[in-house]
Structures are given as C-alpha cells and as structure tokens.
Amino acid sequence: MAGVTVRLPDGSTKEFEPGTSALQFAQSIGPRLAKAAVAATFDGEPVDLSRTLPDGAEVTVVTATTPLGREILRHSTAHVLAQAVLRLWPGAHFAIGPVIEDGFYYDFELPGGVHFTDDDLDRIATEMRAIMAEDQPFVRHEHSIAEGLELFGDQPFKREIIEAVGAGQDEVDVAAEGAGEHGVSTYWNSPAFTDLCRGPHVPSTGALGHFALMRVAGAYWRGDEKRQQLQRVYGTAWETDEAVAEHLHRLAEAEKRDHRKLGVELDLFSFPHELGGGLAVWHPKGGIVRKLMEDYSRERHAAGGYEFVVTPHLANANLFETSGHLGFYKDGMYPPMEMDNGTYYPKPMNCPIHCLIYASRQRSYRELPLRLFELGTVYRYERAGTLHGLMRIRGFTQDDSHIYCTEDQLQEEIGSLLDFVMSVLTAFGFTEFTANLSTKDPDKYVGSDEIWDKATDALRLALDHSGLPYETKEGDAAFYGPKIDIDVRDAIGRTWQLSTIQCDFNHPERFGLEYVGADNARHRPIMLHRALFGSIERFFAILVEHYAGALPAWLSPEQVRVLGVRNDHQGYAEEVAAGLRGRGVRVSVDPADEPLNARIRRAKLEKLPYILVVGDDDVAAGTVGVNRRGGERPERGVPLVDFTAALQREIDERIVPEPVADA
RNA sequence: GCCGGUGUAGCUCAGUUGGCAGAGCAGACGAUUUGUAAUCGUCAGGUCGUGGGUUCAAUUCCCACCGCCGGCUCCA
Q1: Which of A120, A237, A323, A652 is the most exposed place for a label (fewest CB within 10 A)?
Q2: What's the CA gap between A416 and A153, in Å, rounded?
Q3: Do the interacting molecules here have an ipTM over 0.85?
Q4: A101 C-beta less than 7 Å away from strand B
C-alpha cells in the first residue's frame, strides 16, 4: 500500500505509513517537538494530534508557545473549567466557552439560579487541577444534528446552538462551538463530560495546568440584554507558570498607568461624590493640560480653514425631533426640562445646532466647504454600569466640527480630513493608526439606499487613497450615515478608537439646508461630522495612560523645578526660575527646607520633565545641574542659556518622548 | 440597567468573633542647610459611604440606597 506524503513548513517532503498520526509525525521530527506539541495544522487547518496525516497536505506542528498553540491551550482549559463547574454544581447548564485575548471564559446557568461569587474561583480552580491530574483524554466525535440534540438533551444552551444551525442562523458564531451545516463535533473527556466543540484540543487534560481564574461576571446569553443573564468565569492560560506570572505582571503594569489612579496621584482631576456619578472636575494641573490641548486644537483648526462657533448647552426638544436623535437615543439623553414655552433637553450632540447656524441665512456655493468648529460640551445619560473614569462620563466636550460641502467637494474634503486628523494626533505622540469603515445598520437607519451607497463609496475611496490599513464593519454606522473611525496604538500596545469622520446626507435634508449654486438653483449640501480627540476628557485619559503620566514637556503641568542645594542658593534659584518663567516656561522653586534628595524624589514622583539643581558652582558660573526625566544620570554645569534654548526648542517644536512600556 | 466585588484620615491600607478607631505617607509647626529618588521631632487629622433596623451598646450583624472597581449590555 502506498504511503502518504506530506510537506513540511521548510518545503521538504516526507513519506509516512498510512494512518500515521500528527503526533507520530511530530515524533519523527524530534522527541522535543513532540513533547511541546499541542496540536497540528493540515494545510493551515488546526487539527488534533490524533488525526491521521492526509496525503499531500502541508503539515505543521503547533507548540504551546505560539499564538495558535496558546489558543488551543486556552480552549482546552475552558473545557476543563466547564467540567469542573458541572462537577461542583450538578445540574448546571453550560453555554459557550470561547478563547478571548490572553484568555478564555465559559458561561453557565447554575441550578436554582445560584450566582458565582469570588470565593467560588478557588474551589473551581482546585477541581480543575484535579481533572488535569486525572489526565483525561480529549476524544473527538462527529455526530448528526439529531444525534447532537439527543446527546445534549438536558443542556438547553447546547441544543439552541445546534438548532441555530438548522435554522441557518449565526453560522459563524456557532461554527466555533462545533456545530456546522453537516453535523456537530464533540469532545469526550470522561463518561461524565462531553462538550460541543469544533476543536482542536490538546491530547489530554494532563497537558494543561498553567492557568489562573480571574473573575466572575454576569453576561447575557447570546449577548442579548433581553435574554437571561448567565454566570461567566474568566480565566487565562499559558504554556508555563512563568508565562502566567508574566501576564499577571503585565496587567499590574497596565494598572499602574490607569488614568484614574494617576489622576489622583498627579492631582489632575476628580469625581466628587457630591457632584454626582460620571461628572468630573478638572484640578489646576489637569486644567492646564486641557487648556494646552484645546489651544493647540484651535490653532490647528484655524490654520485648517475652520470657523469658530459657540452654541448653548440646552436646546428645544423640537430640534432633536427634527434631527431624529430623540427617536433613536431618547434613553441616552438627560431627562427633559419643562419650561414655560416648551420642553428642553441638555444637548447630547452639537450637530443640530450647527445646522441652525448654517440655516440662519441663505448660503452660496462660494462659501462651501463651510467648516464650523466648536469645543462643544454635551451631556449624555450613560447607564450607571458603563461609567469609567474620564473614558466614559456623562458630561464631556467634543472637538466637534460639521463641514457642509457640495457633492463635488466631498471626496477631496474627506481625503484632506484624514491627513488633518493624523497630523494633529501625531503632535501628541501617536504614530500608529488603523481605521474602520462602518456601514449601514439595516435595522437602524434613515435615508435612501442610494444615498448611503454614495456616502459609503466616498469614504472607502478616501481610505484607499490614504493607504491607512482598515477593516469594514458592516452595520456599525450611526443612523444618519456611514463613518470612518480611526484607532491609535498606545505605548503598551492597546488600541483606542479616537477620531471619527461621518458622512451625513440626512441632517441637511431634515433641516432643509440649501445653497445657491453657480447655476442659480437651490441645492442640498452634504454634511460631514468629525471629531479628532472625540471627547477631550477621553483623549486626555488616553494620553495619560499612553505616557504613564509623564506627559511631553509641552503638555506637562509643570515643566521645570529649580532646587537650591542650600538656602543661600535660593536667590539664584529664583533668578533661574524667573528667567524661564519670562519665556513662558511653567517653573517653580522648591526651597532647601528639606534635604535635596527628598526634593528630587518628590519632583520625580510628580513626573516633571526637568529638575534643575543649583549650588555654589552654578552660582559662580551661571550654570545649572540638569536632571532630565528618563535620563541616565544628571548633567552638571550646563550653562543656563544652553538649557533654556534647548528647553524652548523642545516646547516650541512639541517634541514628544519615546513613551516607555514600563510605567 | 444586570451580575460579582468593594467603601475606615487627603493617599495606601490595618483593625474591631458587637464594648472609647490604628499605621505609613501626605499636611501644620519646630529643629536640621543638605550636589541628584525619602533628615529628625511634635501636633493635628475620622459621625468608619448614606439612611433605616436589631441591641444596654453597631464601624462590626440585618435591610435599603449611593459611589467606586471588574464584567455584560449600550456608546449619536
């Protein structure tokens, strides 16, 4: 009988007996590889190590230290989690247990409506370790839909997943759970535990063990708020205990740069209990940063051909009826105020009011594109559970603009907007951008299909021209038009959605906006909504986290602190400070009432860009000792004029430091 | 809004199986005068998130509410 020939990743081929398993294949290459293997791929398709080699396939061995290998570890660990919960809570129903970034979760419904508490995590982990010690195999089986339904007769969620296939729903979703058009696949671990799953899995539970259960949470079945809430357990799993520890360490590091923590430590802002949930106050040090951000924004907008407008915080309900927001977002708006001549709402967005400015008089095509810009403060009633520091609050300020242009101008306007956005964000130290194109939500939109297609095409074309990498998110658009969202990557690799450019044919129509064209006829303008920071509060929070509080010199609340070695250097220290202050530098003097080291430490903890130490030598020579943030060692005897010139340049040119991953 | 956790001094946290509430840092005052990440001492600082209830007695036990934290849902 002829053997099977497979290709290796290096391009070579190798022949095997028919029936050779992927594990045997790995062993033939080396015992170390076989030991490290968690799964294999046949022509790129992940499979169990027990699978037999198909003739002609390209075969790779998946080890636990690769991204795919970790996914498999995590998925298998999730199965063990489910088995442990079913052992500890007999009669529990289990739902889905997918892999997520850096970990996994599994959703359950416990008998009698019981909820998990944090204390349960230890019990579950102990049971999981017992299952791992039992070294149960993961044995794959294929079943028909009918068999699957019978197998999971007492598991309503599993049945629902299997039934969804029959109904042709959510194919992508359920495929990962092991249900497909032609049947279902399951993994058998022990007589007491079989799970619906596409696989692949590690050969046995003994191959697992480096995991941690993180937390419990409630989560709606199938992500639907109207359906029942299940009990979710989150966990993480890695190839070694060291890798688990490193992961936990990374989480701790990320926590150190949490803007809410740094906001207290650096005295930037707070959320006074007495003020109410989701409402922030900016302290002087946060306030100056915000002012600098706003000043820079205004400067760039002025240069970019924008005109500045100001609108009130309240608006008549009729306005939001006209715009359509009340219809779609009433629940997200602050409750109305009844006043003698009508009903008023705190504005949740600025666009309808900008439309009123446009409509205040007749417009000519010569005025277009008309770019109205405002740092507009809006109020949204965010649900209590969604509030999150400055990232998600109930009152915030948008760097908002509405651009009214002709159809002919649309394409160019979008293109130059993309350039403008990235240019401004770059000044704050963000250099890696990606984009998303959101298209019409078929269940939530206004306007004709034709107009949506036109707008979507314009955005797509602009993105293609820009060279920005982007993905298309079907159905993610706002109700009034498609949009481009721009994401940035921060110092520790997280991505944040910042800017948005939204194309809107609907507001102009609803507000009856017109311009007189060169043909002396009336035409309808197109409107672009756009924000670069999105919300100033949120952008500030992202900046703080990106820099771990060590903001670039041009944005630092205090840029320089001068320390005299002894009190008799105080006069010179004041002189140095006064000179810098005269050039607009934010500087203070910390007198020698305390030892130098204590004052240096304090300034370091406050993350100042520069500490100047001045002593006898400096007084004599007109120099300063420069202790630069992030610098290796301080520099002695720098001529004051040199330091001043270099600092001035750093500030004027808005030089941004390389953000460091270690907070 | 839903699930879990949590709330003690400005900050970080001890503590009380129900019996007058503690530390470090920060703050004030005094001493110290210091060349690159913590000088010493003294003092002050709290209705133990809020409101009810049980009790001779509640920061502690029970109930409700509020805030915050982690998720879910939502995010114009």
Answers
A1: A652
A2: 59
A3: yes
A4: no
